[in-house]
UniProtKB/TrEMBL annotation:
Gene Ontology annotations for the cellular component aspect, listed alphabetically: cytosol
Superkingdom, natural source: Bacteria
Pathway: Amino-acid biosynthesis; L-methionine biosynthesis via de novo pathway; One-carbon metabolism; tetrahydrofolate interconversion
Record's keyword terms, sorted: Amino-acid biosynthesis, FAD, Flavoprotein, Methionine biosynthesis, NAD, Oxidoreductase
Protein name: Methylenetetrahydrofolate reductase
Organism (species): Clostridium muellerianum
NCBIfam families recorded: fadh2 (TIGR00676)
Biological process annotations from GO: methionine biosynthetic process; tetrahydrofolate interconversion
Cofactor: FAD
Catalysed reactions, as listed in the record: (6S)-5-methyl-5,6,7,8-tetrahydrofolate + NAD(+) = (6R)-5,10-methylene-5,6,7,8-tetrahydrofolate + NADH + H(+)
Length: 283
């Protein structure tokens, strides 16, 4: 099933993101627990190279074919050759994976973009996927801009290019200020972007991880979140409790405003997901 069809049936979709761990047994236990929440899909992050790519395909296949949950496989392109991209696409198709999150990916240090690497941007990969395969394509959105593009209007114009090339839905970078997302959504309307937008939420239960991602991507970290992360930096239980409480508040407000989807970045912690969903009136 194409993920885009889920938005025709539900007011707000629920989905999760997981990443390939070194021990695959652990992730399959996590998937079994996440299945209890009836997600509309689970996305699997994509490693920079080697066996990590194969693990992404394997996990996506297991989610789809063993657990009966739609899988959204991440696929990066900037440092990949045409042959490498085609190989991954064929593996996904063989595993009956119909949904892909098309990403540029990080540029390796010292990398030189040559003609053997034809996919410089996510929009180029989207074009390739739409040309070669019958797939549902998701693309990344940045409600508060990105370190590489702080001008939000420029960012939305680039996003429009992804949609024009064939992106069927958008999934946002994590954010902690819902008002910034609501303003971003209004801007999408101004640019005539009408595909479903899924809001990415990550509970702030790991200070080092949140600060690392913030440094890389440039999302806004509100004073309230900074405050409780600093206050409970050395108290794991209290930080977890505060992070779950804040994520629950975010989700409740988003649900009241009838967002099209909520995508929880789980960090492979199904217990945190359960605690959050116990707090919110998700239907």
């Amino acid at each position: 099933m194409f993920i885009k069809d889920a938005f025709l049936k539900k007011e707000t979709t629920l989905s999760f993101e997981i990443f390939p761990p070194k021990n695959l047994d652990n992730i399959f236990n996590t998937i079994q627990e996440l299945k209890k929440f009836n997600p509309d899909f689970i996305s699997i992050t994509y490693g920079a190279g080697g066996s990590s790519k194969d693990r992404t395909v394997e996990i996506a296949s297991t989610i789809k074919n063993n657990y009966g949950i739609e899988a959204l496989a991440h696929l990066t392109c900037a440092a990949s050759t045409k042959e490498e991209i085609e190989e991954i696409i064929n593996k996904l198709k063989q595993s009956k994976i119909e949904n892909i999150l098309a990403l540029r990916g990080d540029i390796p240090e010292g990398f030189i973009q040559g003609k053997e690497y034809p996919y410089r941007y996510a929009k180029d990969l989207i074009w390739k996927l739409k040309e070669d395969a019958n797939l549902c394509i998701a693309a990344a959105a940045y409600p508060e801009g990105h370190n590489e593009c702080k001008n939000l209007d420029n960012g939305v114009r680039y996003l429009k290019e992804k949609v024009d090339e064939g992106a069927d839905l958008l999934i946002t970078q994590l954010f902690f200020d819902n008002n910034n997302f609501f303003e971003f959504k209004e801007k999408l309307y101004q640019y005539n972007i009408k595909v479903p937008v899924v809001t990415g939420i990550m509970p702030a239960v790991n200070k080092a991880l949140i600060e690392k991602i913030q440094k890389l991507s440039g999302f806004v970290l509100p004073d309230k979140v900074k405050s409780f992360m600093s206050k409970y930096e050395y108290n794991e239980d209290d930080l977890k409790k505060a992070g779950i409480e804040y994520a629950s508040y975010q989700m409740e407000e988003l649900l009241k405003n009838k967002v099209e989807g909520i995508h929880l970045y789980t960090m492979n912690k199904h217990d945190i997901v359960k605690n959050i969903l116990d707090n919110v009136s998700f239907k």
